[in-house]
Amino acid sequence: MNIAVTTWSLEQTSAADARPAGEPPKDVRIERAEIPSPEFSRFLYTAVGGDVRWTDRLSLTYAEWEKTLGAPGTETWVAYEKGTPAGYAEIAAQEGGSVEIVYFGLIAAFRGRRIGGHLLSYAVERAWDLADRWPGLAPTERVWVHTCSKDGPHAMDNYLRRGFTLFDTTVEDEPEIDTPGPWPGSHPASA
Question: 127: which residues sit within 8 A by CB, 6+ positions away?
């Protein structure tokens, strides 16, 4: 069975476009996962995307995860609340000074707690200063992201509030694929 999926692509073309969110709860910190770890990244991917139909990376082999995460200019930033992973952002350098926020989101139990706006603001800042951490990388001239109708209901609003502008919309039929989670009863919203 297929489902129609709308994908919206958004961008910032100047660091001045970025609009930061308010401060998160005091027990939230964001830290870079400096050692590429397929196991940890796959955990984040399934934990965040399990209830919003993220399936495109489920078939990747361990070696493919390693290659993707180890590419120059690829970084994973993880939000923690009281030491527990709450969500993440994966950013990746592309040709011509473009940086994509490849994945971004929160685990269901951490949504609605003022963490997402802060994490997105932080990821955008790290995208704009990516070349500072990667010698030889072109300075960032554009930060972009895409979201789709399979993502959470507040994703688009968060991107717009952080200063992104829409530059493309597409609609395609995709096969409906079972997702890895969340576990039944893992969060009140999924019960």
Answer: 91, 99, 101, 140, 143
Please, what's the largest Cα pairwise distance for the chain? 48
Rounded distance, CA 103 to CA 46, Å? Answer: 11
What is the bridge-based pairing of β-strands 98-106 and 142-148? parallel
pLDDT per residue of the chain (191 residues) written in tens, 0 to 9: 888 999 999 999 999 999 999 888 889 999 999 999 999 999 999 999 988 878 889 889 999 999 999 999 999 999 999 999 999 999 999 999 999 999 999 999 999 899 999 999 999 999 999 999 999 999 999 999 999 988 878 899 999 999 999 999 999 998 777 666 655 555 555 43
Q: CA 179, 39, 43, 71 torsion: positive or negative? A: negative
| Cα atoms in the Cβ-side hemisphere of radius 13 Å centred on 33 | 24
> Can you give the pTM of this predicted structure?
0.91
Task: Yes or no: say if 145 and 153 are a contact pair by the CB < 8 Å rule.
Answer: no
Q: Is 36 helix (H, G, I), strand (E, B) or coil?
A: coil
